[in-house]
Amino acid sequence: GGQPRNVQPFSDEDASIETMSHCSGFSDPASFTEDGPEVDEEATQEDLEYKLKGFIDLTLDKSAKTRQAALESLKSAFSSKILYEFIMERRMTLTDSIERCIKKGKSDEQCAAAGLACLLCVQMGSGIESEEIFKTLGPVLKKIICDGTASIQARQACATCLGICCFIVTDDITELYSTMECLENIFTKAYQRDRDTNGISSTHNTVLHISALLAWTLLLTICPMNEVKKKIEMHLHKLPSLLSCDDLSMRIAAGETLALLFELARETDADFFYEDMELLTEKLRALATDGNKHRAKVDKRKQRSVFRDVLRAVEERDFPTEMVKFGPERMYIDCWVKKQTYDTFKEILGSGMQYHLQSNDFLRNVFELGPPVMLDAATLKTMKISRFERHLYNSAAFKARTKARSKCRDKRADVGEFF
């Protein structure tokens, strides 16, 4: 390969240009300054696009290190901004670059390219253009997923990418079923992991099985009800075996998938009955109260928290509602289907999730948020508070917290009288 170029990555400063992410002024009125300098938005936008064009060119560089850096910079930009028009003009070039990097790159480059493919489809939404992208990349992703000689990390990234892109673009039911079958062929191997015929431990494949399972579960949420019934009959009796896996992430993925399957099963049939309910609830209760000393405390806390919710879902048909804030809006996650969808896109978008919930038409349609809320300058001004007011509020909160903690730590604190 050629000499690696000095690629200046897409920075937080670049992301802030016209960006209204979760840490920006649009979503956090408190971040507005009282007297900030005037910014030439048109000039900064041109500067940003010039940088992005450079990154797109560098995805064809001879140096693998340069290509990967360019892919990562494009990922940062796509997750933190809406760039629909810019991408629309260059979608074929971007698709070709991603395809080449997945086919010919090494593990890290393939992972970066797969991640960029996800973000490309998130930016384009569910339209003809995205379908063309998926028609090009779908077969390549499936080939890598099924290639036993490819790195586990690359196969894992491609499995996630395949599921997300299919979720976004597929109107063709046969393509949906074909993609789900590809993912099933991967994660069902985890059912027989302990019975490996070669006597070789395949625990290193666990991360691949988890990604395939979660991507398959995401696609299950958009399947017709008759297909959902078939999948539930096929997997509901086998999934509990994954709860005994040594890997915490696999146990959690299996538990949350079970909760989602029960939710879908009860939607399709109000009188749904599961034969091994007693055995399953016993296993879930054991995980929800796990106190094994050989496990890390952080892992135990996380496991107990997740499986308390899973147990409530299976036993009581209950879901602990969560609220997500973004800008002036609120979204309630009140079912496992919505949680699975939100968690998947948050994993891809990272800190840009709040911004995309505000501005991305596709995501707003997925979560039934309606058209983007447009706030005028007067409304934003009424929402903002001065830096001095924030300082006073934080100081008061800090003093109150310190007093409360000191009181609790003081041995002379009144702890009540006992008779």
From TrEMBL:
Residues 19-315 form the Interferon-related developmental regulator N-terminal domain. One of its GO terms (biological process) is cell differentiation. Residues 1-38 are annotated as: Disordered. Keywords: Developmental protein, Differentiation. The keyword Transport does not apply. Transmembrane segments: none annotated. Residues 360-413 form the Interferon-related developmental regulator C-terminal domain. One of its GO terms (cellular component) is nucleus. InterPro entries: ARM-like, ARM-type_fold, IFRD, Interferon-rel_develop_reg_C, Interferon-rel_develop_reg_N. Interacts with PSIP1/LEDGF. Belongs to the IFRD family. This is Interferon-related developmental regulator 1. It comes from Tricholaema leucomelas (pied barbet).
